[in-house]
Amino acid sequence: MIAVPDERTMIRRCVEADIDIMYEIVNDAAGAYEGVIPADRWRRPYMTKDELRNEIDDGIRFWVYEDGERLIGIMGIQDVDDVTLIRHAYVRTAERRRGIGSALLKALVIQTKRPVLVGTWADARWAVDFYEKHGFKLVSEDEKNRLLNAYWKIHARQVETSVVLADERYFKSRVS
Question: Could you report the per-residue pLDDT of 66-100, keeping only the tens digit for each?
């Protein structure tokens, strides 16, 4: 458990009992992608419960932002080979712009000494801006393709239409 400034809020590791609420958060928040990402990648639900469970089984450790008794944001972290990935960052639509995503990202990034990578949809400009605000930088198109194919298990169409952002540790590791 990670404390946050307000005594009613905390960031904690997700547990099995959170699955239904995690599913709700993902699919509420993912509504922002409708009409933005390629139509062939959009669907409702955006992520099924089985897909969410598969992501957990694949090694993503989800953390939740809890305000009192209410879960309002989730974000995953996954170690893959020599890097750490930030995966599936979602905040309930009605709770956006309150620093919840920022708090989750900071709590997850401090958990690793490895370079951190984030993949997101290229046309989800708000997501790219969010990560850039937190010090992540876009990698080149060639590097993006290499990284997405090396570290993520995603559809080829998603590789075409996504970007990868990396933290300072990643760029420093490439010059050493």
Answer: 998 899 999 999 999 999 999 999 999 999 999 99
Burial label for 68, CB within 10 Å (0-12, 13-18, 19+), is: exposed
Query: E strands along the chain, which residues?
Result: 2-3, 9-13, 61-67, 70-80, 83-91, 116-121, 137-138, 162-166
| pTM recorded for the entire structure | 0.93
Give the residue numbers spanning the domain of 115. 2-175
Which tens digit of pLDDT belongs to each residue from 33-76?
A: 999 999 999 999 999 999 999 999 999 999 999 998 899 999 99
- Measured over the CA atoms of residue 90, residue 92, residue 93 and residue 98, the dihedral's sign is negative
The CATH code of the domain that includes 38 is 3.40.630.30
Between CA 145 and CA 131 the distance in angstroms is 19
